[in-house]
Write a structure and sequence with these properties.
This protein is mainly α. It is 78% helix and 0% strand. Keywords: Membrane, Transmembrane, Transmembrane helix.
Length: 190
């Protein structure tokens, strides 16, 4: 038996979701700061470079792959080639993989000794931070989409919600691809 959603319960659920997002934002920022601190103060042994680089590349593959799959599912929904339920199913499946990618990037990147004096490296770090922060912010978008009927079409959404969906996808892809391209350039130049 389901409990009816009263305005008060809905307000409590939204407040709890805001609190979880705030914790998520702070967690991402703290993880980035710890990763940068380790990367600039700890000199890892030479034998650790290859496994850290492998883990870093694997994290890129997992995280970017999850982001591309999710945004592609959103695009298919937007083009009426898939339903909202399909998008929801993909989101539930790949969101954990995207976070695994972010955590892996921060964890392994700390042992690759990033040179923060290089502008491209700083831009890459910002891109990873933006991807992670956008991931936290997308939890609110996911909650909004969860309240919609399963058969709703993208074109039937309010313009503000449509813009939010598109903006989140653009930010995600821009951040991930920026990090990938700069990482490739940095690795190739060593």
């Amino acid at each position: 038996m389901s409990i009816p959603r009263t305005p008060r319960r809905l307000a409590e659920r939204r407040r709890a979701a805001r609190h979880r997002r705030a914790v998520g934002y702070w967690g991402v920022l703290l993880a980035m700061l710890v990763s940068l601190w380790i990367g600039t103060t700890v000199a890892p042994p030479a034998w650790l470079h290859a496994p850290a680089l492998f883990g870093h590349l694997a994290s890129v593959i997992v995280g970017l792959g999850a982001a591309v799959l999710l945004e592609m599912s959103g695009l298919l929904w937007m083009l009426r080639r898939a339903g909202l339920d399909d998008l929801r199913r993909v989101e539930r499946t790949v969101s954990g993989l995207a976070w695994l990618g972010i955590v892996g990037l921060l964890g392994t990147g700390a042992f690759l000794q990033p040179d923060l004096g290089q502008p491209l490296t700083a831009i890459k770090m910002i891109a990873v931070l933006v991807a992670a922060m956008n991931g936290v912010g997308m939890t609110r978008l996911t909650d909004e989409l969860a309240r919609l009927p399963s058969g709703v079409r993208f074109a039937a959404l309010p313009r503000k919600l449509q813009a939010w969906c598109v903006w989140s996808a653009v930010v995600s892809q821009s951040a991930w691809w920026t990090a990938v391209l700069i990482g490739m350039l940095n690795t190739a130049s060593r």
